[in-house]
Amino acid sequence: MTFTVHGQAVSRGIAIGRAVLVASSRMDVAHYFVTDEQVHDELRRLRTARDAVVAEITRVQHGLQETTGLEAHHELNALLDVHLMLLQDTQLQDGVKHWVQDRHYNAEWALTSQLEVIAKQFDEMEDPYLRERKADLEQVVERMLRHMRGVASPVAGPGGSDEPAHEDPLVLVAHDLSPADMLQFKQSVFVGFVTDVGGKTSHTAIVARSMDIPAVVGARTASQLVQQDDWVIIDGDAGVVIVNPSPIVLAEYGFKQRQGEVERERLSRIKNTPAVTLDGERIELLANIEQPQDTVPALSVSAVGVGLFRTEFLFMGRDGKLPDEDEQYLAYRAAVEGMHGLPVTIRTVDVGADKPLDRASRDDHLNPALGLRAIRWSLSEPAMFLTQLRAVLRAAAHGKVNLLIPMLAHASEIHQVKALLARAREQLDQRAAVYGPVRIGAMIEVPAAALAVKMFLKHFDFLSIGTNDLIQYTLAIDRVDETVAHLYDPLHPAVLQLVANTIAECRAQGKGVSVCGEMAGDVTMTRLLLGLGLRSFSMHPSQILAVKQQVLRADTRKLRAWAQEVVQSDDPAALMAD
Ligand code: PEP
Ligand code: MG
Question: Which residue has the higher pLDDT, 165 or 63?
């Protein structure tokens, strides 16, 4: 049966493929494909884990006989018998085997996928006693996962397999994916993504955008409605997911997909055209990157530098073991060298909120976005921060580096950052380590910072406006929460006034200013930002050419008065069409 699910349009274009469901169980595990050669090892890991859990339960049963009273003994023993039975259950074993052998899922993914299949069957059972056995099944699976976590994985990382498990294109459908999960999928086979949760500027969406493949987030119940192997169309422009489309719909979207390719091909012709407006204003189009290797797509669209290197992706998904100075230095240096002399803006680590360090540390505070995030976390961990600062300073010996600090609001934070930077230099001097000069910039992404922008200009060489957070904090809309996504409005007068004011103050004082939030890559905003005086835009490489096209068609002299009118208006959206 055909049906449609609506969500947030995240990433351009159309993807058509068969659904691969990532289990949305409480058990958060890594998901990746293994190679043919690794299938055997994965099955062995599963067997070892199962045998270990059987041995563990048997030991507990023996212990029971010695320590507990007769009645409790019977009850617990019966429960443990159920657990043993579930572990030996052929449906669990055969199912898991199928996911590994036929689909090439890693062991943990296979186990949680089969858990979902069986759990659904339990849910449908009439007998309440049997229905409750689902919890037992979850417990034994959790025990197996714990054992597997303790055993070093002999398998390759994401994308380890060149061969998809079957020949059709695959789209991934999940309840939620962390930004780190998303990064894991970056080199994998998926042609599109759908998640139940998330807003347009959630970090999961941002990484999807950097992959330049169609994605829809905030699709509510998609992961429950879509079945494994269903044919799915993802319209990343409209935020629509069509499941089991009819041949006519499929043909229509196939046509749209080809049209998109033609448009991209057309855009690629302006790759080497300088980004200069009709009135001769030179516009800087920079790339946002998450990993050093992202400099390759950045250069392929002629980005004139990196305006935002989100370094937190080096820190995430490492089970608390943070990268040391040398590892970071090598990564930053790789990015600097990868840009061949063009400037690279390295932002210090911004973890917290929807970018947890690892799965276990996922923030369960009430208001993680208002908590110990970004620079706040860095200042609370000075040794970690100094390590990063030293690594950035050393990388600056290899090319032009700007150091960017996220989420500043307070003068005290500015002073602490400066003192720690001086301390990092001293430490390098003591070791006679080679390092280079850096320009230092602040992100303006908290309304307090935008309102006190003069204070920031006294201390920094340049500012970069993080519109994703600026919108979130100005409008009190969690950027990750799809239930309030409709209120996340880049055109709210308050947001526009903060952006306009920051640009104007920087220009008045002759300081560099750029926008590095998603607003910079949104072609519907280019003219407005140009009209407000912005001359530096940083965005995912995939958006650079489309924005350049807007730049080439714009005359900033004509946009100035109109932009002021938009900012002063109660209904900016109405004026935007003019
Ligand atoms: C922003 O907030 O706009 C920004 C660029 O930072 P991030 O999206 O990484 O929070
Ligand atoms: Mg931000």
Answer: 63
